[in-house]
Structure formats: C-alpha cells, structure tokens
Amino acid sequence: MMHQRRSPEEIAANRARYEEHQRKGLDFAPKTLPGFSPYPEIPVAHDNVVHQEVIPGGWYWSTKVAREQTIRISLSHGFSSVALIAWAAAETSERMNLADTVKMQWTTGLSKGRVIFSDMGRVMFSITEDSSGAHDCLVGGSNAATNARYQGTLLRDTRDNFIKLAMKIGLDRRDIPAALTLFAPVRVDAEGQFFWNPALLNGADYVELRAEMDMIIGFSNCPHPLDPNPVYAPNPVTITRIAAEAVAKDDLCRTATAEAIRGFENNALATI
After folding, report:
1. How far apart are CA 50 and CA 199, in angstroms?
2. Which of 46, 167, 186, 269 is most exposed, with the fewest beta carbons within 10 Å of its own?
3. pLDDT, position 22
4. What's the confidence (pLDDT) of residue 16?
5. Long-range contacts of 28-32 (CB under 8 A, 24+ apart)
6. For residue 227, how many other CB atoms are within 10 A of its CB?
7. Residue-level pLDDT at 181
8. Consecutive sets of 10 residues in the chain, 272 residues long: mean pLDDT of each?
9. Nearest-angstrom CA–CA distance, 177 and 161
10. Cα(87)–Cα(91) distance, integer angstroms
11. CA pair distance 209, 241, nearest whole angstrom
C-alpha cells in the first residue's frame, strides 16, 4: 500500500506538537545536566580495580557486573567504536531498551547525567562520566552486509559477535536487544539523514557507566556502519570494572529528570 506523503504544513504541525510535549517533559527536570568529563581520563586507583580486560579489534567480550559497580570503557589504544548490550542478571528477559531510553528522556544525546532504561521501566545504567557525548543509539552495530564495503577476507561484525556471545551465556539471537554504540559520532542533519561527525571526538575518550542492578553486559569492538574509514582497523579497547561505592541521595543521574526518578523508584520496588 502506498502512503500519502505528508504536506509541509502537516510536518510542521507534528513537529510543533512534539516540541510542546518535550517542553512540558523537560520542565520537570530539577537540574541542568553538566558538560563533558575531564579529559584526559584520570587513572583508576589500583585498589578500586575489580577486573580489567582489553578487547582486541573485531572481538567481543561479556562480563557480569554487580549493582553500583562502574564500568569504564576507554579508547586508550586509539580510536574504536564499541557496541554495548545488557541483560538483568536475575531475569535475562529484562534487557536494555534504547527506544524507551530515548523516549522517556526526550533526547538521543546520551551523555553524562543521563540514564539507560530496561524494557521494564527500570534503570540499568547511569552515565556518570563521559568525555565526548559522541554515541549512537539509533543506527545499531555492524553486520555482514555493512562489512561488505571492506576488501579482503571475512571480517568480524557486531551482529555475529552478539549472536556468539548470547549463545555462550545460554541465550539466542531473539534475546539480543538493540545496541548502544559508544564513540560513534552519529548525528542527524536537517534533511533527517544520518551523518558521521568526527569533530565530536577528542581522541582517547572514555565513558563510565554505573550499574544500577546486577547485570550481564556484552561488548563488541567492530567498526560502526557509518564509520567513513575505508580500512577495517578497530583498535583494542580497555574495559575496567571498578568497585562499588555508596551513591549520594542527590546523585545527579538519580535526580536529574522526572523520568529517571520514576525509573529508580521502579528499581527500589523490585528489591522489596
């Protein structure tokens, strides 16, 4: 069936309604979100490191993380884009949900002060540090088709990596949620087209994600589908799991928006 193209007037009216709903939602935010985290990153004290893993270019890795532990993802070996997925450890049918994350916070700009929701309305991650804000929650990871642009032998891609990862932990491809790709400076232009904006990156960028529940997290270190580099050359990425610390009652991520407050209320109900 052919769909009738909307007129410019209808598009403008829809945009106005959306912006009005967005304004009302953001009016409830009690805090202004901060800028980017200090750059370069401050080293983690040795006593606070629970585990550290270096994921080679093209490879994947999964780990369990306990509530209030922090995961730092660092580009300490050079640029790479890192796709991330997560499941609740207690019940893996609960998983990361980027559509709800974007919808409930009225933004695709996931950076310091934002949170990442599950499909059960609970908060899975708080973004506690972030040096660039250059992350993609819309396009998704690479697959065999997007890798076809590279010359040479068969190369690893995020879709296949996550299928292998899921199977190793007793899940299958139907359990794989949409991936958040860190250090992927994807933006949308005035025509609604995705484009790659490398000016948003600093170099050795890093992100810290505080776990707000016990989880299983998966990572894939493969080039993003929109990365303009014609050569398949992802660098190793360092993942550091940092010991849990007490969280203040006025913590930025837990109080920055009305949606986050409700999400953490859902987290609390699940532990009663």
Report:
1. 33
2. 46
3. 63
4. 78
5. 28/257, 28/258, 29/256, 29/257, 29/258, 30/255, 30/256, 31/113, 31/252, 31/255, 31/256
6. 24
7. 98
8. 68 76 59 86 96 98 98 97 98 97 92 97 98 96 94 88 97 97 95 94 97 98 97 97 95 91 94 65
9. 13
10. 8
11. 10
Q: How many angstroms from the chain centroid is the CA of residue 102?
A: 11
Give the bridge partners for 101, in sequence order. none
Structure confidence at residue 25 (pLDDT): 59
Q: Please state, in angstroms and rounded to a whole number, the distance separating the CA atoms of residues 122 and 267.
A: 5
Spatial distance between the Cα atoms of 29 and 259, rounded to a whole number of angstroms:
9
Locate 134 and state its tokens. Answer: 């250059």
Q: Which helix (H) or strand (E) holds 147?
A: helix 144-147
Q: For residue 1, what pLDDT is reported?
A: 47
Rounded CA separation 63/58 (Å): 17
Q: How far apart are CA 188 and CA 154, in angstroms?
A: 31
